[in-house]
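for the recovery benchmark. tokens below, seq after
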């Protein structure tokens, strides 16, 4: 998944005692909560005061994860996030959970989000101002992010 992606957004996460299952490692369902938290933080950092969730939102259309190595309670974990594709109505995120001390990638996740109007409850195009904010943050042109 993470083919030469420059992850600019890095968020440390805390592993809670309840995140660890009977086998002593973080349960696979917990990763999605961590990715969701990092996704929210990414949008807050990129869009800032530009964003009003009551007027424009995104919903998950597809999510896929590759679990590469177990995460243990003692691991110091970070989640990296990058936008790897901008479509007319969709945004594709690449995220990965990494052991901060060892640099070992524990899990990779790719999520397709679709623009959504909370009032009409219908898919909508991603507004240009959001595309511009993502391009500026990622340091890429709209043409670069439109390719998949």
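predicted aa per position
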């Amino acid at each position: 998944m993470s083919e030469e992606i420059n992850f600019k957004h890095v968020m440390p996460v805390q592993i809670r005692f309840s995140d660890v299952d009977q086998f002593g490692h973080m349960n696979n369902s917990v990763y999605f909560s961590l990715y969701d938290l990092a996704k929210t933080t990414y949008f807050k950092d990129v869009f800032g005061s530009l964003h009003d969730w009551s007027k424009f939102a995104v919903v998950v259309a597809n999510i896929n994860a590759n679990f590469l190595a177990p995460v243990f309670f003692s691991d110091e974990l970070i989640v990296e996030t990058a936008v790897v594709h901008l479509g007319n109505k969709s945004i594709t995120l690449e995220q990965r959970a990494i052991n901060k001390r060892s640099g070992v990638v524990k899990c990779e996740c790719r999520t397709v989000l679709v623009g959504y109007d909370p009032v009409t409850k219908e898919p909508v195009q991603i507004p240009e101002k959001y595309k511009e904010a993502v391009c500026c943050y990622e340091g890429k042109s709209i043409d670069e992010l439109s390719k998949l």
